[in-house]
Amino acid sequence: MFRYYEEQDDPPIPKPRPLDHATLIGLWRERLVLVTVGVALLMMLSASVAVMWPYSARRTTDAIVGRVLNFPPGSVTLLQLPLAFIDPVLPTGQTTHIQYGPDHPIPIYLINDPAKGLMAYFGRDTFRGCRFQWFDSEKRFIDPCHGSAYTQTGDWVRGPARRNLDQFGVHVHPDGMVSIKVEDFYMGAVH
After folding, report:
1. 3-state secondary structure labels for all residues of the chain
2. For 39-96, what is each residue's pLDDT tens digit?
3. Which of 9, 33, 36, 68 sits at 20 to 30 Å (Cα–Cα) from 99?
4. pTM
5. Are 173 and 179 in contact (CB under 8 A)?
6. pLDDT tens column, 85-112
7. What's the CA gap between 188 and 91, in Å, rounded?
8. What is the signed CA dihedral for 112, 109, 129, 126, rounded to 10 degrees?
9. Closest listed residue to residue 141, CA positions, set 123, 127, 168
10. pLDDT tens per residue across span 111-153
């Protein structure tokens, strides 16, 4: 028969030496550094995944609102769009940005001006963020809270507001459908 190894007595295992205080502190520091680096790498990985994730997968930023024929020249139409949007402008006196979404739709006035074409105005005043209304008899947008007034094309007429109305991008598709893009936000010009 073959013997693959010779039976021998195992050598005695030496007793571990007790570690001194400085060595223990060094080992704990190494472990702390490794854990800290691991947590930092995990945080950077999760942040990079969130940034690289397609923007459109996280939220919808445009909505088809109808055909061009639904908005005849001279018309002013109030729309309530349930899109995710954070108001980038902090109105006077507010401390937090307003968030819109399915439970808090964005008020948007779609105007078809005979001279300028389709325009989409954010339905809140540029002074304090109050929702304004369209008064057809005066052909004006009027803020019921502070009295600011604007023309049908969003230009400031009177009141405490310091700029014209804010706008969203409007796109007319080749098939005649109209979409409003809330990612294309344009702050009203200062007067």
Report:
1. CCCCCCCCCCCCCCCCCCCCHHHHHHHHHHHHHHHHHHHHHHHHHHHHHHHHCCHHHHCCCEEEEEEHHHCCCCCEEEEEECCCEECCCCCCCCCCCCEEECCECEEEEEEEECCCEEEEEECECCCCCCECEEECCCCEEECCCCCCEECCCCCEEECCCCECCCEEEEEECCCCEEEEEEEEEECCCEC
2. 888 888 877 766 555 444 445 678 899 999 999 999 999 999 888 888 887 766 666 7
3. 68
4. 0.66
5. yes
6. 888 877 666 667 777 877 888 999 999 9
7. 13
8. -10
9. 123
10. 999 999 999 999 998 888 889 999 999 999 999 988 999 999 9
Q: Sign (positive/negative) of CA torsion 101, 173, 126, 61?
A: positive
Residue that is written with structure tokens 């005066």 in the block: 138
Q: Which residue has the tokens 């990612």?
A: 183
